[in-house]
Design brief:
The complex is a heterohexamer, with one copy of chain A (about 50 residues), two copies of chain B (about 210 residues), one copy of chain C (about 250 residues) and two copies of chain D (about 230 residues). Chain B is built from nine helices and nine strands. Chain B is α/β, with parallel strands linked by helices. Chain C is flat, with a radius of gyration of 21 Å. The chains are: A mainly alpha (about 50), B alpha/beta (about 210), C mainly alpha (about 250), D mainly alpha (about 230). Bound molecules: protoporphyrin IX containing FE, adenosine-5'-triphosphate (2 copies) and magnesium ion (2 copies). The site of protoporphyrin IX containing FE (HEM) has 18 residues of chain C, from helix 2, helix 3 and helix 4.
C-alpha cells in the first residue's frame, strides 16, 4: 500500500482533480442508470396494476 | 346580415364567377353547388377574406369586410377542405388550442362533449390524430362547430368522407345554429336535410 | 412478412422472459458488485504508481472498460437487431432497445474519462485523435438510434426502423475506425498516441481486466432490468398485441 | 362577441408550437446534436491541427448556428400550411404580426437556444478558452433571435413552393451575412485581444431592427402565400 | 399481362423526377447557389488570409457538398409520401431496390452533379491550383453518389416523422464521415505533394459498397415506413 | 379469383377486424362499407400487400400473395385516399408517367381520351395539377382506370368529392370492367349503381 495518509490518497499524487471526477462521474452514471431503470419499472408495473 | 354585391372572382386566367349578389339573412343557409372546378372553394375563401375579389364587395352588417378586418374575422368560423388540425396532437389538444385561439371556451369538459357530439368515442380522444381514419379526422375538424359561438359559418364540403351517422349529427347542428339566428354558407355536392324555407341555393357553372 | 409460424417468438417468449430475467438479474448484479469492488481495491491499493504518468494513470481502470463496453455493446445490439429483422422476433428487438442506452452511457463515460486523462497527459481536454474521434462518432450513432426510436410511436415501425439503422451503423463502425486513424496519422506525426501506453505492471492489468468483467456483468444486469421495463410497458401499451395478462409477472416483482 | 385578447392569442400560438415540440422531446435534443455533429465535421475535413482549428472556430460555430436555424425554418410554417392550420391562424381576430412573433419565438426556443447553451462546450473542442468562450456565447445569444426573425420572412415567402428548402436558404443567407460578420468578428477580436463591445452592440442593433420590421414583413408574405 | 421491364420502370422513375426538377429549372440552380453561398460564408467568418483558406479549402468544400446533399434529402421521398405517389411506387411490379436506384440517381443529378461541376471554380476561390483542383473535382465525382445513396437510407427511415429534417441529419452525418475523410484527405494529400490515389480508390470502394447495400436497405426502410 | 382466408388486422392497439373470409369472383364487385374508422382503408391496403395482416392469408388464384410478390402487384390497380399524382405536373404528364410505370399503353391520344372520359376538358389537361379543384384532382387520379388492363381494382372512396356527372362516369367504367370479367373491391360510404347480382357487401364494424 503506497498511501501514507488519507489526504495523500485523495490527492492522488497531484492528479486527484482528474482521477476522482472520472471515477465519480462513472459511479454517478452507473448508479443513476440503475435508479432510472428501477423508477421506470416501478412506474410501468404500478400503472399496470391499477388498470 | 351578410351580403355579396356584384362579386366576381378569377383564378389564373379563368373567370370563375361574376356579378354574384346574394344575401344571407340570420337563420338561413346558403348552399353553394356546382360541378367540380366551378369555383365553390374559391368563392368561400373569398367570403373569408383569404382571397381578394376581382370586383364587387362583401358586406357584413352593411360594412365592407376589407374595412372591418379583424372585427370581421371575429364573426366567422371557417372549416375548409383541409382539416386545420395538427397530426401530432390528440383530438383533445387540437380542439383546446383552436378554441382558445378563437376565444371560445376551451375547458376539458366542453371539449370532451364536443368530441362526443361528433361521435368520437373516449379512447380516440387521446390518440395522436395522425392515426385516425380520414372520416375521424374530418369529425375532429367539425367538432369546432360545437364550440363556436360565432354567427357566421363557412363550410367547404363538410360532408366529404363522413358516414351516415356523422352526416346526421352535423345536419342537426346546422339546424340548431340556424334556429339560434346563425348564418351558414356551405359548399357541397350533397343534399342537406334542412327545411326549404331556410335554405337558398347558389349554383356556379363552369 | 409476419405471422409465418414463428408465433412462439412473438407471443409466448416475452412472458417467459420476464420472470427468467427477474431470476437472473440478482446473480449478475452481485457478480458486478463483487468484481468492481475487487477491481477498485486492486486498482487503488495494490497496483503501484506509474513511473511516467504518476497516479493519473489510474483513470485507466474506468476508462478502458468503459471504452471497451461501448464498442462491444454496439455489436451485440446490432446482432439482436439483425436477429429481430430476420426472424421477426419481438424479444430480439426488445433486447436491442434495452442495450442502446447503456451503450450510449459507456460511450459517454469513455469520452469523459478520456478527456479527464487527456488534460494532465497531453495538456488538452480534447484532441482530434483517431480513437477519440471514432468514439465520438460512435456516440452519435447511439444517439441517432435512440432518437429515431423515440420519434416513432408505432412500436412495430420503431423496432424495425431502428434495427435497420443499427445494422447499417455496425458496418460503419470499422470503416470509421480505420478511416479516422489513417486520416490522422497521415496528417501529423504521432505526436499523441494512446497506444504508446507504458508496459503495465501485472497488477495494473489484473485490476483493469477485473473492472472490465465487472462492467460487463453490470451491463448484463442493467440491460435485463431494462428489458423487463420494456416488456411491461409494451404489455400496457399493447400495440404489441392482444395477449393474455402476465400472472407470473406480478408475482416476480 | 367572443374574441381573444392579444396576449391570449400570443400565448395560444406559443403553447401549441412548444406542445408540438415537447410531444417528441427528441425534437429539441435533435437541434442540440445536429450542432454538435456539424461542428465536429469540420475538424474531420480540415485536419486536427489545433492552431488552425482555433482560427476557424468562430467562423465554423457561427456558420453552424446559421445552418441549424436554416434547417429548422422548414418547420416554421410549412406544416401549418399543409394541414390548414395556417389558414385558420390568418382568421384569428388579432394582428397577424403578433401571432408571427409567437411562432418565431417558439422557433428560436427550439433551434436557437440549444446552440447558445452548447456553444461553450463546442468552443472548448476547438481550443478556445476563457474570455473568447464567453464572447462566443454572448454573440450567439444576441444573434440567433435575429436569425429566426429574418428566417421567418424567407420561410413565409417561399411557402408552398417546390424545393423551398433550398430556395429559402438562397433568400435568407444573404440577409444573415451581417449577423454572421458581426458575430464571428466579435470572437475573432476577443481572440486578438481587441475589445468586442462594438461588434456586440451592432448585433444588438440588428436584433432591434429585425424585431421592428420582420414580423410585419412576414405577415404580409403569409397573406400573399395563401391567396 | 402488362408488366413493365426493369429498365423501363427504372427509366420511368428517373424521367418523372427529372421532369419535376425541370418544371422549375430553378431547382437545380438552387443547389448551385446554395453551394456558392455557403462556401463564400467561410471566408467571411474565418477571415481573408489565403494561407489559412488554402488549408481549410478541401474541408469546407466537402462539408458544403455534404450539406447540399443533406438539405435536398427531404425532397427524395417526402413529397412522394405525402401525395400518395410512393404508395403507388411500392405497387410497381419490379423489385423496389431497383426503383430506389432510379430515385437516388435523379437526386444525385439534381443535388450532387452541380456541386461537382462547380468545384473547380470554388477551389480557385480558396486558392487551390492545378493538380489539387482536379483531385477535388474527381473526389467529389466519386464521393457524392455515395452520399446520395447513404442519404436515401436516412430519408426512408425518417419518412413522415416530425422534425425529420434534423433527424435525418443526425442519422446520416455519422455515416457520411468516411466519405468526408477520404474525400477531403485526397485533396489535402495532393496539396502536400503526397499521392492521392489511395484516397480516391477508397472513395471508389465506398461507392461500390454503398451501391451494393444501400438500395436494399432503403427498400426495406420504405416498406417499414409505409406499413 | 381473389380470396381472403380468415384475415385479421389491427392498427396500434386496436383489433380492426378478424376472421374475414371473402371470395371475389371474376365479374363481381365487393363493396366494403362501415362507419368512419371501422378499418376499410386498412383492409384495402392489406389487400394491396402494403400492410401485413396479423393472421390469415390473401390468395390470388389460390396462391398466397406473400409468395407472389411482384407477380401479384402486376395484377392490380390501386386508387387510394391520396390521389398519387404530382401537383407540379400536368394531368397529361401525370397519367403518361403512371401508365408507363404500370406497363400500360401511354401514348398521347390514349391519355387524352382517358382524361376526356372523366370529364376533364382540354384546357385543363395542360394546367399544373396544383391549381385544379379537389374534385378535378380526384378525376385525374381515377383516369388511370381508363388505362388499366389489370384484372383487380382496389378503390378507396373513389366517389369522395366527385360531382354527379363524375360519379356516373365512374360507375359506368366499373360496370364495363366487371362485364369484361374484372374484379373490383371498393371502400365507400355511398350506394353504387351496379346490378345486385354482381355486388356483395362486406360490413366492418367498430
Ligand atoms: C476523450 C478522450 C479519449 C477517448 C474517447 C478514448 C477512447 C478509447 C477507446 C475507444 C479505447 C479502446 C480502444 C481499444 O482497446 O482498441 C481506449 C483505450 C485506451 N485508452 Fe483511451 N481514449 C481517450 C483518452 C485517453 C487518454 C488521454 C489516455 C492516456 C494518455 C488513454 C489511454 C488509453 C489506454 C491505455 C487504452 C487501452 C490500451 C489500448 O487498447 O491500446 N485514452 N481509449
Ligand atoms: N392558374 C389557373 N389557371 C387556370 N385555371 C385555374 C388556375 N387556378 C385555378 N384554376 C381553376 O379554378 C377552379 C378552382 O375551383 P375551386 O377549387 O374553387 O372549385 P370547386 O368548385 O371547389 O371544385 P370541387 O367541387 O372540385 O372542390 C378550377 O376549375 C381550376 O381549374
Ligand atoms: N396506433 C393506433 N392506435 C389505436 N388505434 C389506431 C391506431 N392506428 C390506427 N388506429 C385506428 O384504426 C382505424 C383505422 O381505420 P381506417 O383508416 O382503416 O378506417 P376507415 O374505415 O377507412 O375510415 P374512414 O371511413 O373514416 O376512411 C381508426 O379507427 C384508427 O383510430
Ligand atoms: Mg372545392
Ligand atoms: Mg378510409
Amino acid at each position: 500500500m503506497q498511501w501514507g495518509s488519507l489526504a495523500e490518497f485523495f490527492a492522488m499524487g497531484g492528479y486527484g482533480l482528474y482521477v476522482w471526477p472520472s471515477f465519480g462521474v462513472t459511479a454517478l452514471c452507473m448508479g443513476g442508470e440503475v435508479f432510472a431503470v428501477w423508477r421506470r419499472h416501478a412506474a410501468a408495473a404500478g400503472s399496470r396494476d391499477e388498470s | 346580415m351578410f351580403q355579396t354585391v356584384a362579386l366576381s372572382g378569377s383564378r389564373g386566367e379563368r373567370q370563375l364567377f361574376s356579378d354574384v349578389s346574394v344575401t344571407v339573412k340570420p337563420g338561413t343557409l346558403l348552399a353553394v353547388v356546382g360541378e367540380n372546378g366551378s369555383g365553390k372553394t374559391s368563392f368561400l375563401r373569398m367570403l373569408c377574406g383569404l382571397l381578394s375579389p376581382d370586383g364587387g364587395a362583401i358586406l357584413w352588417q352593411g360594412k365592407d369586410i376589407r374595412q372591418l378586418k379583424e372585427l370581421y374575422s371575429a364573426q366567422l368560423t371557417y372549416v375548409g377542405h383541409l382539416n386545420g388540425i395538427k397530426d401530432e396532437l390528440t383530438p383533445v389538444e387540437n380542439l383546446t388550442v383552436s378554441a382558445s385561439l378563437a376565444g371560445d371556451e376551451s375547458s376539458g369538459a366542453i371539449v370532451q362533449k364536443a368530441l362526443e357530439a361528433v361521435g368520437l368515442v373516449r379512447p380516440v380522444h387521446r390518440l395522436p390524430t395522425r392515426v385516425l381514419s380520414q372520416g375521424q379526422k374530418r369529425r375532429v375538424s367539425l367538432a369546432r362547430l360545437w364550440l363556436s359561438t360565432r354567427p357566421l359559418w363557412l363550410l367547404d364540403e363538410p360532408f366529404a368522407s363522413l358516414d351516415a351517422a356523422a352526416t346526421s349529427y352535423l345536419t342537426q347542428r346546422l339546424h340548431a345554429h340556424l334556429n339560434n339566428g346563425g348564418m351558414v354558407v356551405v359548399a357541397t355536392h350533397q343534399e342537406i336535410a334542412i327545411p326549404t324555407d331556410s335554405i337558398q341555393h347558389l349554383r356556379l357553372t363552369r | 412478412m409476419s405471422g409465418t409460424g414463428i408465433n412462439w417468438f412473438k407471443y409466448s417468449s416475452p412472458q417467459a422472459l420476464y420472470p427468467l430475467a427477474g431470476r437472473m438479474i440478482p446473480w449478475f448484479a452481485a457478480l458486478a458488485l463483487g468484481l468492481i469492488g475487487v477491481g477498485l481495491y486492486v486498482g487503488f491499493f495494490v497496483a503501484p504508481t506509474d513511473v511516467t504518468q504518476g497516479d493519473a494513470y489510474r483513470i485507466i481502470f474506468v476508462h478502458v472498460p468503459a471504452a471497451w463496453m461501448s464498442m462491444f455493446l454496439y455489436v451485440i445490439m446490432a446482432i439482436w437487431a439483425g436477429l429481430g429483422l430476420g426472424l421477426n422476433a419481438r424479444p430480439s428487438f426488445m433486447m436491442a432497445q434495452a442495450i442502446a442506452p447503456t451503450g450510449a452511457m459507456f460511450t459517454f463515460l469513455a469520452l469523459f474519462t478520456g478527456s479527464m486523462w487527456g488534460k494532465p497527459t497531453w495538456g488538452a481536454w480534447w484532441v482530434w485523435d483517431a480513437r477519440l474521434t471514432s468514439e465520438l462518432i460512435l456516440l452519435f450513432q447511439y444517439i441517432g438510434i435512440i432518437l429515431l426510436r423515440s420519434s416513432i410511436d408505432d412500436l412495430r415501425r420503431a423496432d424495425r426502423a431502428s434495427a435497420v439503422l443499427a445494422l447499417v451503423g455496425v458496418i460503419n463502425v470499422p470503416i470509421i475506425y480505420f478511416s479516422v486513424r489513417w486520416w490522422n496519422t497521415l496528417h501529423q506525426g504521432a505526436s499523441v498516441s494512446i497506444t504508446a501506453a507504458p508496459t503495465m505492471a501485472g497488477t495494473m492489468v489484473t485490476a483493469m481486466l477485473v473492472m472490465m468483467f465487472g462492467f460487463w456483468m453490470y451491463s448484463i444486469a442493467v440491460t435485463l432490468a431494462r428489458m423487463r421495463c420494456v416488456i411491461v410497458e409494451r404489455e400496457r401499451h399493447p400495440s404489441w398485441g392482444k395477449q393474455a395478462s402476465m400472472p407470473d409477472a406480478v408475482e416476480a416483482r | 362577441m367572443s374574441q381573444p385578447s392579444m396576449s391570449e392569442a400570443l400565448r395560444g400560438v406559443i403553447r401549441r408550437d412548444l406542445l408540438l415540440a415537447m410531444r417528441h422531446r427528441s425534437d429539441v435534443a435533435m437541434s442540440v446534436f445536429f450542432v454538435v455533429i456539424v461542428a465536429s465535421l469540420f475538424p474531420l475535413g480540415v485536419g486536427p491541427e489545433s492552431a488552425v482549428l482555433r482560427v476557424i472556430a468562430s467562423g465554423v460555430l457561427w456558420v453552424t448556428a446559421l445552418l441549424a436555424c436554416l434547417l429548422s425554418l422548414g418547420r416554421l410554417f410549412t406544416a401549418d400550411y399543409l394541414d390548414g392550420v395556417l389558414e385558420q391562424t390568418l382568421l384569428i381576430p388579432q394582428p397577424l404580426a403578433v401571432l408571427v412573433v409567437g411562432k418565431v419565438f417558439s422557433h428560436w426556443v427550439i433551434s436557437g437556444l440549444p446552440v447558445v447553451l452548447l456553444s461553450p462546450l463546442l468552443g472548448l473542442q476547438f481550443g478556445l478558452s476563457g474570455d473568447s468562450l464567453w464572447v462566443l456565447t454572448l454573440s450567439l445569444l444576441l444573434g440567433t433571435p435575429t436569425l429566426s426573425m429574418i428566417g421567418a420572412i424567407g420561410a413565409a415567402l417561399t411557402l408552398g413552393l417546390r424545393g423551398s428548402g433550398l430556395l429559402v436558404a438562397l433568400l435568407v443567407l444573404p440577409l444573415f451575412i451581417p449577423v454572421l460578420i458581426f458575430g464571428a468578428g466579435a470572437v475573432t477580436n476577443s481572440l486578438a485581444g481587441i475589445g468586442s463591445e462594438a461588434n456586440l452592440s451592432l448585433l444588438g442593433a440588428c436584433f432591434l431592427f429585425s424585431f421592428a420590421f420582420a414580423p410585419w414583413a412576414t405577415a404580409v408574405a403569409l397573406r400573399i402565400a395563401l391567396e
